[in-house]
Amino acid sequence: METIVSPKPLLAVLVSLVGALLIAITGERLRNLRETWTILASVTKFGIVASMLPEILNDKVIEYTLFKITSHLILHFKVDALGVFFATTASFLWIITSFYSIGYMRGLKEHAQTRYFAYFAIALSATVGVAFSANMFTAFVFYEIITISTFPLVAHKETKEAKRGARKYLTYLLGTSVAFQLTAIIITYNLTGKLDFSRDGVFETDVSYLTVTITFFLYIAGITKAAIMPLHSWLPAAMVAPTPVSALLHAVAVVKAGVFMVIRVVLYVFGIDLLKSFDLGTILATIASFTIIAASVIALRQDNLKLRLAYSTVSQLSYIVLGVALLTPSAVIGSIIHIVAHAFGKITLFFCAGSIYVSAHKTEVSQLDGIAKKMPWTMAAFTVGALNMIGVPLVGGFVSKWYLLLGALEKGSFEILSVLLLSSLLNAGYFLPIIYRAYFKKSPGHAYEIKENPFMAVTLTITALISIVIGFYPNFIASLAKEVLR
Amino acid sequence: MGEHSSILVVVISLIASITNVFIALVRKSLCYPFFVFILGICFLLSMDILYTVINFGTVKYKLGGWMPPWGIEYVVDHLNAFVIAIVATISFVVAIYAKESIKKEIAKPRLPYFYSTYLLLVAGLIGIVITGDIFNLFVFLEIASLAGYALIAIGEKRSVLASFNYIIMGTIGACFYLLGVGYIYIITGSLNIADLTRLLPPLYESKVTLAALAFFVIGVAIKIALFPLHRWLPDSYTFAPSAVSAFASATVTKVGIYVLIRISYTLFEPRFLTEITPLSTILVWWATIAIFFGSTIALGQIDFKRTLSYILVAEVGYIVLGVSLGNKEGFIGAVLHILNDAVMIACLFMIAGGLFYRIGRRNLTDFTGLKKYMPITMTAFLVTSLSMIGVPPTAGFFSKWYLILGAIRAEQWISASALIFSSLVNAIIFFKLLEKVYFSKKEAIPKYNFRELPLSMLTPIVLMGLAVLVLGIYSGKIISTVIEFTVPKGF
Lengths: 486, 491
Fold this sequence. Notes:
Chain A is mainly alpha-helical. Chain A has helices at 8-26, 31-51, 53-57, 81-108, 113-132, 136-154, 160-192, 209-222, 234-237, 243-270, 272-278, 280-300, 305-326, 329-360, 376-390, 396-411, 414-440, 454-472, 475-485; strands at 2-5, 60-68, 74-79. Chain A is 74% helix and 4% strand. Chain B has a domain at 278-491. Chain B has helices at residues 2-26, 31-56, 78-103, 111-130, 134-153, 159-188, 193-199, 207-223, 232-239, 242-267, 270-276, 279-299, 304-324, 328-359, 370-373, 375-389, 395-409, 413-439, 455-473, 475-481; strands at 59-62, 73-76. In chain B, strands 1-2 form a two-stranded antiparallel ribbon. Classes of the chains: A mainly alpha, B mainly alpha.
């Protein structure tokens, strides 16, 4: 594998930080200029990330050492297939979300928009930082920056409820990462003297079962952003945030940073061989399976649309965890593809929820009777997103589920197979009634006219279309995912 | 120059503290410039000492040309130079801050005496650190303590009682220390630390040596407010004038810990503390309890300065823990934390003082909505808070990293969890405050004067806030140039 030294990963991180600074300086008075900075930063960021794709596909690795703080705590970037995969998804969706945000924030005449856009940019900067981290320390730094920079976004409304939600958010994410993840990192360093991500893991083969088990589960408990039960309840609490935040951060950037870290820990800190020999994957797979089913059952009972989507996210994130926990090639490919497939599907669904809120001021599922007539684009996109979640063929979610099922078969586990099938049924159970209501029930009639916001309608149509494109042409993404395992 | 800096830094501040009184007789307005000027010189001298030690190694200065062990000798190695630099820098920065801050807290005619006493405290603290003689150390310890009692007593109404408490406790501590010195002198006939290092090992089994060690440790434990001997600290630092709280909290306990390190690892050999006496183990547990206790109590406070005082009790526990873990990582963490904690605590006390300066109160609830009125101060507060919690890449993370690593390496799991527990408590305390600052709106009360601080108070706060970031990023450099050399042999 060839290594190229290039500051591109650093630039990709910095561009949105600079963007945040410009946004903060420009302020509310020149709001069009401020929004221009957001768009410029997001497009440039995507450009830089995408420009690294060809080199990665040619089996090269891009590295850049930013700063050696001490001999072993080094801020070091390394772009590999897995990292660029995640970074591309996040930075591309940021462009779309930016347009959507403008529509949403202006549509609702929200307060503190400058703060909102600035922290959004910082959060994205840190997300790409997590994707490009070469060692656990760098990843931890950016992981914490994500937590702190998204806090103002969750507390955006500044109401009592928003503050309570944000407090819970912070307690879960910061508390566990300091208490468990940091401990796990220090134990890892103490045992191995290394913090770098490496393909075979950093542990020697002669470590004791107990130490490895404890460290492994400290990591899993410490990466709460993956929302594995029982440490998931911050995610529903975070739904008090404005919808674009829920869409990009709590369906893509933040939570995917969590599962991304889980993948890093499983594959690059412990390594497949070590986990197989201690059979730790099975325990993680059991926890993930439980989360998948339990979260889906809870989602069934939610009337609030965003909460239903949040529990759906909890469930879907565990698909990704389940995939890596199975430790078979197809399952891992499946979970990597699911990062993208779920991202496009769930962001579409959240966009739709936001669009409905802005145009029709509705938040509950039970209020959606007949809304498809008033908001045709939104509900069409919603249907595509829902089909994606259920895993219907020709939509993105099918591809990842297919690989996950293959992985379960490779493992020869009937239980996992049935978990996947049961959860698909449950997904259908909580998404199809919404679609049924919207299209076939009669609208109660409104005193005001419902009109779709063009900013929002266009963006959500784009993400819905891309989910379909992934379903039709899965080869590109599948080949990139296979690159990770090479 | 480097050789003479070590004596000059003490003598200048000592003489200046007396001169200042006479200057006051001539012209009161000259006192403050003189005061800052002297501390500026001390700061430069301390940097010179640090530079000399880094480049040329240990500096020895024989007072009056008397040969040790008969004469008093000043010995400056990496550890002293490091602590002196901290004391001199913080004293200088707080001195700039003090000008405006004490105007509202101390009656004007008393100001010259305040400056004099402050200089005396600086002289005492630097003297403790610089001397290589255990009796001379006691003398400076008393100079510093007496100055400290006086400075605290000129604070708010209740400060007199607080200071009285401090006097009682501090005097008991000093007596214990002096008894230790006496015992050591009885069996060895020497007071010079370098000399004692050579003389003591054959006497390790002696009961007198053990008693001396016990007296030393208890005496110092009172001076550094190691729980449950911390009783004097919260009241003193809560009711003292803001500038005194900022300076004393950042340096007095740190210098005490320096004495503990000297006694544990220079006067005695490390093996004395681990193999012959169980002192290391005792201190590890003691410090662990101090961390749990200090953090827990800090959680329940209303007054911001009192919260900080209890956090300080926990932080003292951190450093004592790191020193006693008996491995390199823990020790590096402890010494690094001496620096980081000094900067963070000084900054936070200065912010508390700033709040008091503007509105005459400093309860946690008074932080509500301050981002609008004091944006720059609150940015410094944000950075320092993150460092207290231990969020990378601020300074607090790195010392905590080494401390936890040391605890895990020593397989002290409970101590490691105490450190983490305390980080979490800090997270609760400071995020509650940050939420008040950034996400709550204040109803305008016309009576109060919510405005950004004057420049002379703001600059030191911003400087310390920046230092938290810069020290964090350069902590590797600090470790490799200074702290690596302070680690005792045999670790």
